[in-house]
Design brief:
globular, binds adenosine monophosphate, 7-stranded parallel β-sheet, Rossmann fold
């Protein structure tokens, strides 16, 4: 760190000690960047190094969120961690900040982060770059399928990254073909770990990669949903007795800033209803989830024809196109995204305040992840689910039971201030 940066750090850090007891404002509103809830520890007390404090300030992260308060000190201490906490509450920063704090860069890979989708890998890479802004010596690489493997091999030949983020298949290929050496890794992170560990095929790839890392290392696993059976699997990857932080009561997983409604109708009535909703609701950005690629393409076409310029996102797209669409939506070039479950998890579009389940998800966990795309980081949001079959009703019933949330029939009129932050 240059002397100049250190000086800025000294002078410009706000001392958060004085205003630690931050609570929601009178209306109970939590604005992004001001975590609502009683805050007992600030970032400053966590003794983060100056380049990280500077980056936090640039990102306007004033106070740690609950999950950051609970997990970051443990992560910084080097403990193995299994952490389940609500979607959109700042889990990424826990491992990004911890690894950047602990890293002692040499010519070896220090940290490996694995996750199940390419866009999530890309997004995590961006978070690393954001927080490593004042640590120019840190090299962060992201590897995922859909991009010629030679490109990744060339990147690895030209420089060894300190932090590797990737999807399991591509990482395994690079390791097996001896392009990527993980034998000195000090930290391994699984983000959306239940997705990595649920399916036997994916789990086996993850295990093969994991076996290439040394025995002694820190392991951290994160997700908004870690079902009991996955917890047992997760523990196989950590040291005995890892620190486990679960929101045990699933009702606590409910996103409090989020209003949730449903509309019962036939499949044929969905387009008209959607049109009505988009005409009558106020929004910044909207994500509309559908059940298949063909429905995604058809609905995207319909929306564009009806004057709602939208982007379609589904699995079969070429990787470059997928990233372009991800960036276009993130950069607000369109206000509507029609997506299959490929974007149901992890991805963070901070302007999204409405999620519409044009097709109900196939299970309650997926519902929770999908609606968690809005109302992120304590902001308000609205979800509307279109219910057209007995199976849809069954999933809705499970959602209501498991997460103790009252998803009500959509009323005629909804007060804008209840789902849109001022
Ligand atoms: P995540 O759950 O990691 O996807 O984070 C959700 C959103 O909250 C992202 O847009 C983060 O940039 C933002 N965020 C995370 N932690 C904080 C914080 N302490 N203060 C303000 N924003 C935050």
């Amino acid at each position: 760190m240059s002397a100049e940066v250190a000086k800025v750090a000294e002078e410009e850090f706000v001392d958060y000690e004085e205003d630690q007891a931050v609570v929601a404002d009178a209306a109970g509103d939590a604005k992004k960047g001001s975590y609502a809830g009683v805050v007992s520890t600030g970032f400053r007390e966590m003794l983060l190094k100056a380049p990280l404090m500077n980056a936090l300030q640039d990102c306007s992260f004033e106070h740690p969120s609950e999950v950051q308060q609970e997990c970051l000190p443990q992560a910084l201490y080097g403990s193995d961690l299994i952490c389940q906490a609500k979607a959109g509450t700042g889990k990424t920063a826990v491992f990004v900040l911890a690894t950047l704090q602990l890293i002692e860069p040499d010519d070896k890979v220090d940290t490996l982060v694995m996750c199940h989708t390419r866009e999530l890998a890309y997004q995590i890479c961006r978070e690393y770059l954001r927080f490593a802004k004042y640590m120019p010596e840190i090299r962060v690489h992201v590897y995922f399928g859909g991009i010629p493997v030679q490109k990744h091999k060339d990147m690895l030949k030209s420089a060894t990254p300190h932090i590797v983020i990737g999807t399991p298949g591509r990482v395994l290929q690079l390791v097996t073909e001896k392009d990527l050496d993980l034998s000195s890794v000090k930290r391994v992170i699984f983000d959306e770990c239940d997705s990595l560990l649920k399916e036997v095929d994916m789990r086996s790839v993850v295990q093969q990669v994991f076996q290439q890392t040394p025995h002694n290392k820190q392991v951290m696993l994160f997700s908004a949903t870690i079902p009991k059976e996955i917890r047992a699997v997760a523990r196989l990857f950590t040291a005995p007795n890892p620190i486990e932080l679960y929101v045990d009561d699933e009702s606590k997983l409910t996103l409090h800033g989020l209003l949730q409604f449903y509309v019962e109708l036939s499949d044929e009535q969905k387009n008209r209803k959607l049109n009505e909703l988009l005409d009558s609701l106020e929004f910044n950005q909207v994500i509309i989830f559908v059940s298949s690629v063909s429905r995604c393409q058809a609905l995207n076409k319909f929306l564009n024809e009806f004057g709602f310029p939208s982007i379609a996102m589904y699995g079969g797209l070429a990787q470059e196109e997928r990233l372009k669409r991800y960036n276009d939506f993130k950069e607000y070039k369109a206000r509507f995204l029609v997506s299959t479950d490929i974007f149901g998890r992890g991805v963070d579009f901070e302007r999204v305040n409405i999620v519409i389940n044009y097709d109900m998800s196939k299970d309650a966990d997926t519902y929770l992840h999908r609606v968690g795309r809005s109302g992120r980081f304590g902001t308000k949001g609205l979800s509307v689910t279109l219910i057209s079959s007995d199976e849809d009703k069954e999933v809705l019933k499970q959602v209501q039971e498991r997460f103790s949330v009252d998803v009500k029939p959509m009323p005629e009129k909804i007060e804008i201030s209840t789902y849109m932050s001022a």
